[in-house]
Design brief:
Structural class: alpha+beta
Radius of gyration: 20 Å
Strand order of the largest sheet: 3-4-5-7-6
CATH architecture of the largest domain: Alpha-Beta Complex
Number of domains: 2
CATH topology of the largest domain: Aminoglycoside 3'-phosphotransferase, Chain: A, domain 2
Oligomer: single chain
Largest sheet: 5 strands, antiparallel
CATH superfamily of the largest domain: Aminoglycoside phosphotransferase (APH), C-terminal lobe
Helix content: 25-40%
CATH class of the largest domain: Alpha Beta
Order of helices and strands: EEHEEEHEHEHHHHEEEEHH
Number of helices: 9
């Protein structure tokens, strides 16, 4: 890889940092871009001993600052290490921008599959394991929402109250900062939502972007790791469930306009099945 920060990795400086800060990591390192764009950039990192890590850093373009706070994401995943929530093992956080132009962190690579389209769903999962993946996805969400934030050191991670109002303020502000034309309907929807904010129960961890393709799944349908914690916070757990159902289209569901319809393949739950399992598991 080129020794330039413009590619997302300054391989010389990052390699030196890895050897000093990640126990057992041995040069030379091979960096491979996995995913990115407006979201945080993700790189596969292999060392001379074939240890396999993942490096996450902010995107090269500007975006919502709190969504690209590496320290915040690293803190959440680290806090969940022994909580029962499946997350990758964190290794080290770099806050010295001289190393790579921005903060980044390193965690272990987790083997498995990311199901993001119909061919993958049909290739790596059977009808039975698609059903199991649906169950495991809901059960894992329930585990996230059951974490005692005080016990894992996250009580001060964010405000506990007013989650929906905070989200409306955040995303409406993002819209106003980036819009290229006026759309009165957006203003009307925002105002109507403000009038209809439901009462919030006790705050829990909220992932903020919980869906199947933000998880690593085994061939047996078990969730191996929850990824992409970049907009995690504390707030109303039902927001995660609601967003999951927006993303999800089961075999018998009306199609969602927001996502690829990979969960329409036979074996996956319908939306109401997800909701029913979550309600039974959590008592909410």
């Amino acid at each position: 890889m080129s020794d330039t920060v413009s590619s997302g990795i300054d391989s010389t400086k990052v390699s030196t940092w890895l050897e000093k800060n990640v126990a057992g990591a041995t040069a030379p390192f091979e960096f491979e871009f996995i995913a990115g764009g407006h979201s945080n950039l993700t790189f596969s990192v292999r060392d001379a001993k074939q240890n396999h890590y993942v490096l996450r850093r902010p995107p090269l373009s500007h975006g919502l600052a709190s969504a690209h706070d590496m320290g915040r994401e690293y803190r959440m995943i680290s806090a969940l290490q022994n909580s029962g929530v499946p997350v990758p093992r964190t290794r080290a956080l770099c806050t010295d921008s001289e190393v790579n132009g921005a903060d980044f962190y390193v965690m272990d690579f987790v083997d498995g599959h990311i199901v993001r389209d119909v061919p993958i769903a049909e290739r790596v999962l059977t009808v039975e394991t698609r059903a199991r993946a649906s169950e495991s996805l809901v059960d894992t969400l329930a585990k996230i929402h059951a974490v005692d934030v005080a016990k894992v050191g996250l009580h001060d991670f964010s405000r506990h109250e007013g989650y929906i109002a905070r989200q409306l303020k955040r995303w409406y502000g993002q819209w106003n900062a980036q819009k290229t034309r006026e759309l009165a309907v957006v203003d009307r929807v925002h105002d109507e939502l403000l009038k209809r904010i439901p009462e919030q129960g006790p705050a829990t961890i909220v992932h903020g972007d919980y869906r199947l393709d933000n998880c690593i799944v085994s061939s047996s349908g078990e969730i191996q790791a929850v990824l992409d914690w970049e907009i995690c916070t504390l707030g109303d757990p039902l927001a995660d469930l609601g967003l999951l159902t927006v993303y999800w289209t089961g075999p018998d569901d009306e199609a969602s306009p927001w996502m690829s319809q990979y969960t329409t393949v036979k074996g996956f739950f319908n939306r109401n099945d997800l909701i029913a399992r979550y309600a039974k598991t959590t008592g909410r």
